[in-house]
Amino acid sequence: MSEPFIRLTNVGKVYQTKTGPTEACSDINLDIQKSEFVAIVGPSGCGKTTILKMVAGLAPYTAGTITVGGKRVDRPQTDVGIVFQEAIMLDWRDVLENVMLQIDIRHMDRATYEPVARGLLKATGLEGFEKKKPYELSGGMRQRVSICRALVHGPTMLLMDEPFGALDALTREQISMDIQRVWMESRKTALHITHSIPEAVLLADRVVVMGPRPGRIVEIIDIDLPRPRRLDRLPERFHEYSTRIRNIFKSNGVLAMD
Ligand SMILES: Nc1ncnc2c1ncn2[C@@H]1O[C@H](COP(=O)(O)OP(=O)(O)OP(=O)(O)O)[C@@H](O)[C@H]1O
Ligand SMILES: [Mg+2]
Predict the structure, then answer these.
(1) pTM, rounded to two decimals
(2) Is-contact 209 221, C-beta < 8 A?
């Protein structure tokens, strides 16, 4: 195995609040290889968003070390694309221009990246919508635009924080397939946070299962399934992985025993 691209060593985070300290997560040890797709599943409040923000350099850690590309993370990372739970868009910019926002903010060359933006919009089923304004789009389409914007500048690392959280089940499935396709073409190092066990198993090379707050890693499961994975042809092993993760949650009291 080569040196991991993202490495978390004994990472912990305590938020200081007016009412006292809150321990969000502790003892997080995780190595992510370049081009690997890792999903994190865990109960609400176990520190998933906190971990993603710490990897992105948007929140300081209070214990341990995080390195990306061998360098200690101590400031906001630039070589990264982030997709948040809610699609954040500028209403006065059309779809293409919302994707190009990433290029404008970074003062990168528009002529070079406009074809890239158009290609990503095509790959996520948005060809023909380039000139639409955000309010003319569905929630799923808006989230697709966010994914394109997170990728257009060619970052080495893609961080996604429940990007489908606000979407209906069918749209979630469709966008999962889009993410899989785009990821298979680009092989970005991806960290994907989700509440959904099947979504994690569908997308990831490895699934990190966390316990309740203060979040710790309970288990890391290798998902040995060929790609592309198809929702209409899920092998028996897919269901075995999902059941295994569900059972871990049950034994940690996260899911009620039935
Ligand atoms: N800025 C903050 N200040 C104080 N406490 C915070 C802050 N952000 C998060 N927390 C606390 O840290 C804990 C973990 O929060 P975090 O948002 O990382 O959880 P999560 O796993 O992403 O949850 P969810 O699945 O609901 O999004 C929670 O108890 C939360 O109240
Ligand atoms: Mg969260």
Answers:
(1) 0.93
(2) yes
